[in-house]
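Quick illustration, no need to memorize.
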Amino acid sequence: MDSSVINSYITKINEKINDLEKANKRVLTDTNQLLFAYRGESKDFQESKLTPSIFRNTTYIHKEGYLYELLEDYGIIKTNRDFDKMIDAQHYIAISRGLDISFNLLVSLYFSCIDIDCREEDGVIYVFAFPKYVSPHSKYLDDFYENILCEDSPMTIPDKNFKVISHSKNNKRIIAQNGGFIFFPGSNAFQLPDIYYRQVTIKAKDKEKILKELDKLFGINTAKLFPEKNYIAEHVKELFNKKRNYDNKSLTIENQVLEYINRLDYELELEKYRLLKEEKKTANDTNLRLSRIIRKEHDDLKSYIHKNNADNLLDMINREIEILRRSKLC
């Protein structure tokens, strides 16, 4: 092989990483805290891209608990932890509210090329940068998911309060794929805002070459993916000694509202940057776009607290949204 087709795509993807870092410098004091991840899809699925499998059938979301009962009845899963059940459901039957991501670019390249039915179509690599993420074994995540599954819970979770689950090691396949998840909490699918990612097109004509290079140069193939287990302990020790931006708070309506507002603050800042710098919009156009977003999100928040009988938080929400409006408009 005269030249590596993988190298050309790595260069393109690295440009997207640099772009995401540049945008995030407007918001974060330390972009080293960003969690970068990747997802390969065999083609551009348009409206349904980056959508967890449980939302692709309108009946699935209402039978989530029943799915786990069946998996336990047939001995497929043997765990009492709800999040581990979700991972096994994704692993065995590809139905869950978790969207697979990988922290290894080469693995995602593999998945953008491997589907034979889509071999004649261009694939896509999604390059993510997330400012916050949660450990797959945190108590907060346990409480968060238990509340979602409990039909009698007095508290709902906003659809947009998604979670990014870092380096999960729950089963051999996830270990091999160096994988994690984007966890969608609501009853309805929503489009992940594109301020969190960039995308690179994988040309159909390159797919076969990429698969051959992945196998030959990196040992990435259907039969065996990496990394080996003997490197995991040292990697965990290294991560433990570093400061990490993990969520570790209690599950309350007020905290969900504050999380919602913090997410909105982050997204608005990056959207403002994109409009002014990348799309070269005028200040008036930018203000109009941001005002519409703020108004819609404000209405959604008010509906959320009303649904949860927490109207006592209305003054706080109005105050925080007004602070956001004044800080973001040009």
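The CA atoms of residues 62 and 187 lie 8 Å apart.
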